[in-house]
Write a structure and sequence with these properties.
- 4 copies of one chain form a homotetramer.
- The first copy, chain A, is α/β, with parallel strands linked by helices.
- Chain A is built from 11 helices and 13 strands.
- In chain A, helix 3 links the parallel strand 3 and strand 4.
């Protein structure tokens, strides 16, 4: 059994990590650390875990060694924390935004503060198995990309060489992305039914997409009515026709267990919709073309394939386990 | 023009008071008081008022005299505040819970604290024109009932003498009832899609219903997915048949401008649904009968007929204006 | 491997049966029958099954023999169908409403038509393991109760002897209960955000609750904003105190794998909420007491514990498999 | 009083026309025509009109003359209908898609059928007062643009000369845009919580935007969780800085009663959100800039400023009435 520690275990990503690990036949939770709720039962914070576990949160200063440490701690706090805790585990998989961009200048530009552990940035392998499977199998430091970055990257990867480099990405996100500590703007009465353009330009994840895809990505982001889910609609231009594009998508993802090509010509479910993916580790990708205009679309659950599920997938790869272990939930319909 | 002051103007009820008063041809807003946001434009807090007003919030200690003062301030704080400010206006209409129950023991039982201005309790006329129109025309102190209390009272009034006194009321409410200062349990990710039984027994408004109707009312309350809206389903027993009940409802509300009897036998809209009433001052009431079982149903917008709209209706009555002035919005469909 | 046939496989319950059976290690789907879509891939109708199966629907007249036949066909049609197909399988588990009430007069009263197979009614064991586990282990005909009936029955069972027989049940349901063939009243624009009292008195499931619990149950039902989920709030009277009730609930369900007692004094999740149970086979039950008033509450996913999950649980019992096999998904939070 | 006839009065746009006309001090409804429901009360179909009117729908063949005829009839049917009925009124204001594009080839390309009344196409003035106020004052034939076309056009107009011609528009829409006759894909259980990219390329309204703005517009469209509301996010490139853009927006709309510039740097309501506009005739427009990237955003209620409200605004202009008459509802918050 792989002994796994979770930091930030009382947050939304932390809760999903616990859910997935509890259902995983090859892992045991060594420790669930919460700064806010040490001493409280995990199922008092994550009520879906009632009957699944008697786990109690521990304080950060009680952290013990384990095989794999998953850090689902806040941006900025994590770059301070990580150098302190990396010695406690053979592998650290970070879900925060702090180690996603290898260039500290990019970090500062998008996160508004200088990076305090720039020497570590180059050591992280991006937690996106569809690109870095071999490296992940040997990585000691893994950084799971942002949820919209993973979605956009998977939407765009098959287009390499088929579209011009300038890509405009339109991301739509659910409210869980704001976390369990969100403020008054995320009260239900304020956020319900909203179409809130919270990043009309320069969403943080655009830098990750540019780096991962080699394209020049720009991203806007809008909060829409949903708790979970990210959808990206990517606007590109190129000359490939529909048949070429379809082949590119099919070939790129033929062997991927968690990427499905969803690009039908008709039907209510013809293109990726995150509503179908709640709780699942799938990223659905699709496309459409009209003349020189190519639209690439992806959907995922921000807390699973966009976070905790990707982390467990990386953990499986790193540990030499079957990649899909513990990640079998397919999502619901209708829902 | 009636000069109206609003205290608690940055809250949700305060915002609705401003909206209704700005659209009211017979009133002018003398002052909008906010403890939290003195000096800020009202439309920065209530964005639906953009283009409607340049009003700026003032601090509580700047309160001036006016003709009518509307207090939409928090429970407990209001019983302290009201004795201080009642001299500033000929009429005070209170929307808080502090002056709804004439008996201070009832207040303490349901609000968990002794009343600090018990001498005033008897002086308030309930702000429910369907029962107290004549008294309201001369009242200096008016207390608008709780939103679920108004709904249940209007649902039950026609049943006087037709049902046994024990009545079980099941209230369902939207999230705006928790106010603009609600806590983490009301974050969108937590509250969205919920069916949260927050008062399985002894909801505060049951005491008001008992007092207003003379019945022995018990109330449970559940938060459901909605921002606005209260619906009550009241379970009673009696021997009246459908025809008798229909006549009782029709006669009771024949002359009421804001109560509609909605009790069809079929159709998606056969019975009261608050979704149709957002922004309107209607309370729809209906009923059904099966043997000795009588179900009475009412729906309203908690911020309008359950709060700000009722206050403006009372203001109109007190001022001798047409009762419907400024309250003409009928609600939307579909919505 | 148990060979399972599913009739009505293109409906919502049918889709959930397929999802659960595909994830079940002890079953294989012998056939998925659809009257509407013979020849179409199952994942074209249930898009969450993409990548899970290549199953194609067959026509009803192609039905072959199998070990267990699950009928998720419409009310009224099923009572004609079942006598024709029961010979095709050793065990038939019916999810329709047609075989839930042993008395044909009760059926006619609640379903508005005479029963056409009254001779079979007495042969069905109710598919509620918490009451009929031993009988289910040997049953050839099983009828899964209505979703609200299961919820109310599980909420009320521990109160046997502790409350008076008259019980008023208030059920709230999501839109999936209307099925994939629902009409214009269930269009999103009409149904969204609704609080639609579609059964102000005499909901069909009340007869089932009365029969299963021995109480005299009355049920109202309201459609609220949700796709999945049933919550019942049951109003009873009695003299038991909180401690007695807590013990009764705990003891009654101490060994039940899919019933959790959720009855905290505070917190956003203090009482059962179906939002946490989407996709899971749990039924959460809770209670509160105020004087002689007892409120019992239950929540479940109408398509799982209220339908397909209960059927699979019964199948496991009948087949001598571990009862929880294939039913491990715990639900999500936040969601 | 202006005598107004409404065709298609039982649809969603028809219902909003009735609501607005009933609240309009200068109009009287001469006739409300419904093909589906002749003889039924209008408030049986539009339940928000209960207590507002006793109007009964008439059949199409009973159409009489009136001053202004509003046609809210389906696409394709309207191009046949309009030549037949235009003689019944001095002014016809059409809300369908059939007379929006002056070029019949464009119509055929986007609507998939040849136009049957091409000789009329050039006679229609677009019902967008912000561009055609003078022409509307004398127009006999007016065609209200598509909801997303109006939003995008108003978002983009101030950018004339400031951005390059290629513009990518991302539209998000509520479910009411599919109309009261929508099919199974719009059932609540299917459509709820969806992010459904129903037009990944070449949404119909892009041709209108190109014509109205002189830009080369491409539009994608996604159905998101909302009943009402359209939001467009337009991606353009140019060299203007923030100050220049702000001035351009302010100047362009300085005198417009129904366009508000909403472009704050922070806050939950910093940019246009249709949730605030339900029932109101406002179109909010805003923008943001990052280097050479300009994002323009607009929001409106598809049934009001995107349909019925625009029609009434045009009617006011044509009749020489104050333009805002009957259109005073400002929208709600929270909602």
């Amino acid at each position: 059994m792989i002994r796994v520690g979770v930091m930030g275990a009382a947050g939304y990503l932390g809760g999903e990590l616990l859910r997935l690990l509890l259902g995983h036949p090859g892992t045991t939770i060594a420790q669930a650390v919460s700064t806010r709720f040490p001493g409280r039962r995990a199922d008092s914070v994550h009520p879906n875990l009632r009957g699944q576990t008697d786990l109690v949160f521990t304080a950060p200063d009680e952290l013990k060694t384990c095989d794999v440490l998953l850090t689902a701690t806040p941006h900025r706090a994590t770059m301070t924390l990580l150098p302190e805790v990396r010695g406690r585990a053979g592998t650290v998989i970070d879900l925060s935004g702090d180690f996603r961009n290898p260039d500290p200048a990019v970090y500062e530009r998008y996160y508004g503060a200088p990076h305090t552990a720039p020497e570590l940035l180059g050591a992280f392998v991006p937690g996106i198995p569809e690109m870095y499977r071999a490296e992940l199998a040997a990585a000691d430091l893994i950084s799971v990309p942002g949820c919209a970055a993973t979605a956009a990257t998977l939407a765009l990867l098959p287009l390499a060489g088929l579209v011009r480099p300038d890509v405009q990405i339109d991301a739509r996100t659910g409210s869980s992305g704001s976390g369990a500590l969100a403020g008054a703007a995320n009260l239900h009465a304020e956020r319900s039914g909203a179409m809130r353009v919270f990043a009309p330009v320069r969403h943080r994840h655009e830098a990750e997409v540019s780096r991962l895809t080699g394209l020049h990505a720009r991203m806007t982001a809008t909060g829409v009515e949903a708790v979970r889910g990210v959808q990206v609609v990517c606007h590109a231009t190129g000359t490939a026709d529909e048949r070429t594009l379809r082949r590119a998508y099919r070939e790129r993802y033929a062997d991927e267990p968690f990427v499905r090509v969803v690009a039908h010509r008709t039907g209510a479910h013809r293109l990726p919709d995150p509503k179908l993916l709640s709780g699942s580790n799938y990223c659905d990708v699709g496309f459409a073309v009209d003349g020189d205009r190519v639209t690439a679309i992806a959907a995922l659950d921000n807390l699973v394939k966009g976070g905790a599920g990707a982390a467990v997938q990386c953990l499986n790869i790193r540990a030499g386990e079957p990649e899909t272990l513990g990640l079998g939930f397919p999502g619901l319909h209708p829902v």
